[in-house]
Structures are given as C-alpha cells and as structure tokens.
Write a structure and sequence with these properties.
349 residues; 5 helices
Length: 349
C-alpha cells in the first residue's frame, strides 16, 4: 500500500488540473465537479444538482449552524467513469507519469505497481486488483473517485479523499472502508450548506422610531415565517441518490443593540405560537399591555440609532433515498434593523 501511495503522488504531479464549475439558474443552482486530477489525486466527474431554496450559482447559503463543531463534508467519493473510459483516462495518466523526466527509483516502481493494480489484478487486503481496468464489466458499474467540496476553505480537508479510484457494481454499496462515499446523509449536509433562508424582517410597532420607556411590539406573521426546503441529488448510470433538507422556524431572539433596554420576555427569546407565528401584532387598545414579544428602550439613541438584532432559529431535519433521514444541527439567520429612540417631549403651560 505504501508503494501505491508513492505512485499516486507521482500521478498528482503530472495529471491535468481539477476544476469545479458552479452554474446556476433562477430556480436554484447546481455544482459540477469536472473529471481530472491535481496534486491531490484523480477526482470524480460527478454532478450534484441543488434545487429549492438554495444560494444562486452553487454558492454557500446563509444558514449558520448552532453547533460550532459541525461542518459540511469537505470531500467525498462518488461515481467517476465507466470501465472503458476509466482505462483510457487512467492508462494515459500512468504513461504520462512514467515518462516524466527523472521518474526513476521508488516513484517509478510505485507507478509500475499502480499499473499492475489496474491491469494485472494486483491488490491487497480489502482492496482487490483489476484485470484490464475491469473492461469486461463495462456498463455493469463504475469506478469511484474523490471529489472536493469547492466551498470548503481548508485546503487539507478539501483534499483528503485521496484513495485510488475503486470499482462499485451497479446497485451495490461502496466497500465499507470508504467512509466518505456519497450517501443521502452527505447530500443532506450539502443541501444544508447551500440552503438560503428568507431574509425575514421583524414587524415592529412603533416602526423604526420609538420612544424612551415605550414598549415596542415585535412579531412575525405565519405567512412570512414558514419552513423552507433544499434538495441535493446525484444521478449517473446505475446510481442515483437524493436528500431533502427542511428548515422549520422555531424561535426569535431579540437583542436591542444597547444594555439600556428591556426585552419581552426577559430572556429575549420569543417562542413560536400554535398557529406558526411569533409574537402578537399591535392594535389599538393594547397600549397599556405588555407585549408578549418586544423591547423597551430606556434611553435615547441620540443622533444615531440602535442596531436591533433579530436572530431566527431554524430546526433542521432531512429525508433521503431509501427512507433515510434524521436531524441536523439547528441553524440561525440574523437580521439587523436600525431603531431610532427619542425622548418623550413634554410641554409645561
């Protein structure tokens, strides 16, 4: 296995560059990982299509995970090429690497072992070799290879799926040692990464300008505060998976932008009502009541404003191919609203 690692490193130096090309439409986005390789290895030509409430052009969405330790997958293994196409691509890369200037000694021997792995049935524990690149089984499966997450900022994490491409029969699961092989759960996490939550603005009364010691009511109507979905799917010959990630709003947290303020409730956390709304709209006759969700500023904002931060927490779950499903960390999305607070003027007669 060590010599094959040397061989893979040699191929890294000579193979064409990997490219990630995001494309999009008004209805969503899709990210395409092109075939090829770079200094981290051969990468799968796999297309993941995103639909629903997702960021345009394959970009990262606006959801912030409440779990600071949770991150989307930095890379994964996915279907790459059929046997005949893989033979054409891989054999050409091997020959190019073998003919590179100065390719002697251990690297040259390692390249030879990689060639044996795909041509002469040379394998090792849990990793079988292949006869003539499995051409006799062309159409019955595909070689899988590593894919970078183009939105992962950490270079080392993004390039950590570097195992040699491996064969998977149509309808069969990848070998268990490839823990990063694409699954509905990985697709759900990618849908989470690309999800775009609505920029809901909290309704206030009084709106924008309020008075010192006057309770300001805050609320979100059900129509403006509804669940959203994002779907990630992969579909290639003999293999198809999809997962839909759903975000459901569950609470609103108000931060006044100054310590000289009082929130309702005192925690600043306004929970969702039975009808799916949050808070209660202000109406005439409620001036003497305490708002179920709101703020009271205790001093003027002077010539400026206070930045009211309204953070919505979203409960996130997913479902996918084969009845799979589960929960993902809650997500948050924050809106800032400028609030002017004035002193109440009194007139002495």
């Amino acid at each position: 296995m060590t010599t094959l690692t040397f061989a893979l490193s040699a191929l890294f130096l000579t193979a064409p560059a990997y490219a990630a090309k995001p494309v999009g439409s008004d209805n969503g986005a899709e990210t395409e990982q092109e075939g090829g390789a770079d200094e981290t290895g051969i990468h799968a030509a796999a297309r993941i299509q995103y639909s629903g409430s997702v960021a345009p052009k394959g970009g990262t969405g606006n959801v912030t995970s409440s779990n600071v330790n949770w991150t989307p997958p930095p890379c994964w293994y996915a279907p790459y090429l059929g046997a005949k196409d893989f033979k054409k691509k891989m054999s050409a890369d091997i020959e190019e690497a073998a003919s590179a200037p100065g390719m002697t000694g251990t690297p040259a021997a390692a390249i030879g072992e990689t060639k044996r792995h795909y041509e002469d049935d040379y394998g090792w524990e849990d990793t079988p070799g292949y006869k003539d690149y499995n051409v006799a089984k062309d159409g019955e499966g595909m070689f899988w290879a590593g894919v970078e997450n183009p939105n992962e900022p950490d270079f080392l994490k993004r390039n950590s799926c570097t195992d040699l491409p491996f064969w998977v029969d149509n309808g069969e699961a990848p070998p268990p040692q490839y823990e990063e092989a694409i699954t509905p759960e990985i697709l759900a996490a990618l849908a989470y990464q690309h999800m775009e939550l609505p920029g809901t603005e909290v309704t206030l009364a009084p709106a924008q300008t309020t008075k010192v010691n006057l309770p300001t009511w805050a609320w979100l109507d059900k129509a403006d505060f509804h669940e959203v979905q994002a779907t990630a799917a992969i579909n290639v010959p003999g293999f198809a998976l999809q997962a839909t990630t759903t975000a459901k709003p569950v609470s609103l947290r108000l931060e006044p932008g100054t310590e000289d303020a009082q929130t309702y409730p005192a925690s600043g956390e306004c929970t969702i009502n039975d009808d799916g709304s949050i808070g209660e709209p202000y109406a005439k006759g409620k001036a003497d009541r305490t708002p179920p969700c709101g703020i009271k500023y205790l001093r003027s904002s002077g010539d400026g404003t206070f930045d009211l931060q309204a953070t919505i927490t979203w409960e996130i779950a997913w479902t996918g191919t084969g009845g799979a499903g589960g929960d993902l960390p809650d997500g948050t999305f924050e809106n800032a609203q400028a609030i002017t607070v004035q002193e109440i003027q009194s007139v002495n007669r």
